[in-house]
């Protein structure tokens, strides 16, 4: 009898209740290892290898942070005596019988991944690489590693002093890599590069070092790997062995996904299909969120709000730091308002339930001025209790009877609070002595906690309010992107934060931000503002600083306000890109290789990125590489030829470079102090004609979850430039949402190199247009959004 026994071929019988059996194969190898291959889609394969009789339980799957409801896949098996071949409609996996080594080819026969192999602790590679890892991180020094900033009563839990542990209990998954192959992703594990070949990446959530590790990398060759474990693990990307990507696990078995696509955006899409598409925040969060100084009371905050409105400084949300609590840094479920500083209700009502919002008091007055209110939080609690109780309740079993940490926050929501800022204290701390309610230790739970905290927050808020809310967390792991937004730890708003934004975007995180303008140099403050305005969501964290525009010198104050007003003008473009990301996995901040994969000049371009599809942002540098084509300086309208690195000045009242992609179409809105202040039945559409181009603007109601059922409107703009004319079209809207506009006016602004001779609006010649400085301006009414509207310009 052959040593390899194929125990189960792809199941073909539907399971009870309408569920389907997974398409999977269980094999016992010649080396006595067990191997399981689950075919999730034509492009996604989950592979498990273990020396034990049973595979270890995967807690990310147990707690519903990964997709498991895969449809059956037509997958054929062929056994040639030495290997088993598994063929889907797009890819072929060949599995060696001896040790489970895998190779992958596409349907044309092109080898995509030459070899994937498993190395147990007894293999010479494991202790060799393990020793190298321990040497690499032996001198790991993390600032304030004994606690979170401001957490004065932290117990300073013992830290792991050995990175890998006993080599004999570890293992490695090795993936062959080709000469010239590049790798992206990994989350916030590198602050020197976005292209990771030659680097060692540490997948363990650590304060001010690797707050949001992502055990995922994608290759420029059209494949990706997700290491499906919560224990400490490492990605050695051609450093220890130049032709191998070695994934070092601190357990003796492996659980990982291989995924394939025709492009990196496709591969990124498969990763977020597994771990969850990015959370779509309410539209107002894509405006400005501002945290005043932590010493301010309710009267100071209200004065800030009034000053913002008086100065025309747009802002949608203010949040309070720990001073809002009666007991500073209250980790308990018994926390109360500090009634001496804030009065969301009379102090005599502190024990009265149910809670409500009082329109005459602090929260009500903020809402009356168009502001939302958020609260800072810290947490140290066993989050597995809630997860296990959810499982028990769903199965009809008795629950623990223990409190769930999130439940106590509902009374603050009932007071009118709109969301929460979740500090890393003390969730990101290690708890090596803890035994969790689910029976596991911190070894399995530490990384997982970084997902469970935002998951439980999102579910609590969703159940209690019924709509999307503002909440974000400064740590994370694979899947965190699905449950909320993130910030770049307590790492300021400089270059460290920049690397986090780029690497997280290449790892499936869309809603990333940082402490904008929190830099050490006055000269860098305005450049850091330029950076922050072009982040997916924007938070300015005063904390101990004075970040209100009132406190800035006159020149900087005006620049500050102008930049925020530009941010709000761009909201139709930004929010459309956010909806796209929630549907596809594409980030808003896009490292250059994601948009220009064939241009090798951008392989490791770190001080520039694409903000959505059409805007190129230069960060902390007046020199950028422009890909081929004719780019436009957003500030001046100047045309600049691409295909080279340019050093370019920007106006005195701006603090960084901003270029527009050839052919770009950018929808913009009128001036507003906050989202929803005015209707957007009139939009400005900037067009930078270059041959044929298009842009689809996505919209929904901005607050509900209806988009999950497809309640999204798609308005496609098309531009076509020839020697004789420019044609601009607004196609009939597709889809709908509650409250959708039935008609609109588009103020077209077309950047032209020639004077127009004639202009036609919806087929009728008009003289009601202007063209100055090469910018044509003309109104395009669309009386029915279900019908096409068009402008034709003859030269």
How would you characterize the overall build of this protein?
By secondary structure, this protein is of the alpha+beta class. The chain folds into three domains: 5-275, Immunoglobulin-like, CATH 2.60.40; 283-583, TIM Barrel; 679-794, Immunoglobulin-like (Sandwich). 18% of the residues lie in helices and 28% in strands. The chain contains 13 helices and 44 strands. The strands form seven sheets. The protein has a nine-stranded antiparallel sheet, covered by helices on one side. An eight-stranded antiparallel sheet has the order 1-2-3-4-17-14-13-11. The protein starts with a strand and ends with a strand.
CATH class of the largest domain: Alpha Beta
Q: Could you say how many structural domains there are in total?
A: 3
- The CATH fourth-level homologous superfamily of the largest domain: Glycosidases
The tally of helices reads 13
Shape: globular
N→C terminal distance = 81 Å
Tell me the Rg in angstroms. Answer: 27 Å
How much beta, percentage-wise?
25-35%
| Major β-sheet strand ordering | 5-6-7-8-9-10-16-15-12
Number of strands: 44
Structural class: alpha+beta
Can you summarize the main beta sheet? 9 strands, antiparallel
Compute the average pLDDT.
94
Helix content: 10-25%
CATH architecture classification name of the largest domain: Alpha-Beta Barrel
Q: List low-pLDDT spans.
A: 1-19
